[in-house]
Write a structure and sequence with these properties.
This protein is of the alpha+beta class. It has 5 helices and 17 strands.
Length: about 280
Amino acid sequence: MPTVPAAALPDRWFRTTPDSAVLPRPRLLARSLVDVTVLDDRIRAYERLTGTPADLRMPIPDFGGLELAAVGNMLLIASARPFTPIQRRTAYSVIVPSLDGALRRLDQVGGTVLEPPETILPGSRARVRFPDGAIAELVEHRPNPGERPRPPEPRTTGDSGVRLLLRKAVSRSVFASLVRLYETVLGTDRDTRLHLDAPDGTELATVGNLLLVGTDEPESTRTAHVRLALVTPAPRDVPGARPAGHRLVRLEDGSVAEVWDSATGLRAPHAAPARAPRGTGAP
């Protein structure tokens, strides 16, 4: 494993969890690609939105000068260079307890490895395609020599009451199969499944921090590209957001998110351990 060059590690490098082997299940992250000059501003914007401090920041000079930061369920990927087409098409980053275990789960559901495993500064990675067509980068974190967990820096943002989730909307006919797919890919059971009392019969499920929406209602069908959701007790008062359509808001970085009232019954993820792939004892 590469060691962290001293020149590449100013105070910006920190990880609350340097070893992802301790995670109870994969950590699914949305991705926002930004210019490196605005990274600090974007970190502060998501800290205000979610009321949580960044828990990961990593300059990665051996990957073309990238710098990463995670705030809640958002991974900010900053670069001084233009992003490649595959970076732009990648929907998720997933921090996994075990890369081998994640690849076994992927094989179980018929996914595809696009870029094979390789060693990188945080640990190891692979880029894959899930059976639903979504492209994800799987990353296994391991501590570098001498690295210790570093708690997030305290912030004065306070608790905003907003949960940021990843969102994927599909027709009701494939909703149940998509829930099963992500339960297997993420190695965990769903936390919530709801059938809303609405004319179109919208169904909701959360698998970890992924919100799956099953609906044939025209407005939701038109917003199938929206990849973020916000769950909040105050849907009309989302920090830093502007209205962008029916139940949609535009965030400070330009991303569009669907807003759900927490009274709907979307529960926070439970802390149950990850499921092992069938037929193996691997994580």
